[in-house]
Design a protein that fits this description.
single chain, alpha+beta, binds magnesium ion
Length: about 160
C-alpha cells in the first residue's frame, strides 16, 4: 500500500462562489484561484498524486494554461482518478481536514463526500471529511482564506 499527503490554501476574494468538495456553499466570498478555487479537492488531488508518485497538481494541470481557467476542480479530480488507475492502484481510504473559521461546513460534508465518492468511483465510507477552526489564530483564523490537508491510502488495483 502507498500513502500520500496533500496541502493547499486559497485566499478569499469577492464576487466568487465558495466551492468546497464540489459543493457550492452560500457565503459572501469565494476562494481566488486560476480554477474554481476548490481547496479541498486540490489537497485531495495532491494526496492521490503523491501516493502514486506522480508529482503534484501543478505539474499535471499548470495554472499557466488557459485550459484550466475557472475549471470545475471535480474535472481535475476525475483526471487524477484516471492517472491513479493507470498506475494499477485503487483508493483504500481518504481523510481530509478543512481549516476554516467561517462558514460552518458540517452541514455540507455529506454532499461533499457524495461528490468525491462519485468522482473517484469509491464508496462514501472510504472518504472522511473533517472541518476545524484555528480558534481565530493565523490566516484561516483571521478569515483571510481556507486551507485543507488530505491523506490518501492507495492499494494495488488487483
Ligand atoms: Mg489550489
Amino acid at each position: 500500500m502507498r500513502i500520500g499527503h496533500g496541502y493547499d490554501a486559497h485566499r478569499f476574494g469577492p464576487g466568487r462562489p465558495l466551492v468546497l468538495g464540489g459543493v457550492t456553499i452560500p457565503y459572501e466570498r469565494g476562494l481566488l484561484a486560476h480554477s474554481d478555487g476548490d481547496v479541498l479537492i486540490h489537497a485531495l488531488c495532491d494526496a492521490l498524486l503523491g501516493a502514486a508518485a506522480l508529482g503534484d497538481i501543478g505539474r499535471h494541470f499548470p495554472d499557466s494554461s488557459k485550459d484550466y481557467e475557472n475549471i470545475d476542480s471535480r474535472i481535475l479530480l476525475r483526471k487524477v482518478a484516471v492517472l491513479v488507475r493507470g498506475q494499477s492502484l485503487r483508493v483504500g481510504n481518504i481523510d481530509i481536514t478543512v481549516i476554516a473559521q467561517h462558514p460552518k461546513l458540517m452541514p455540507y460534508v455529506a454532499a461533499m463526500r457524495q461528490c468525491l465518492a462519485a468522482d473517484l468511483a469509491v464508496h462514501e465510507d472510504q472518504i472522511n471529511i473533517k472541518a476545524t477552526t484555528t480558534e481565530g489564530m493565523g490566516f484561516t483564523g483571521r478569515g483571510e482564506g481556507i486551507a485543507a490537508h488530505a491523506v490518501a491510502l492507495l492499494l494495488p488495483a488487483a
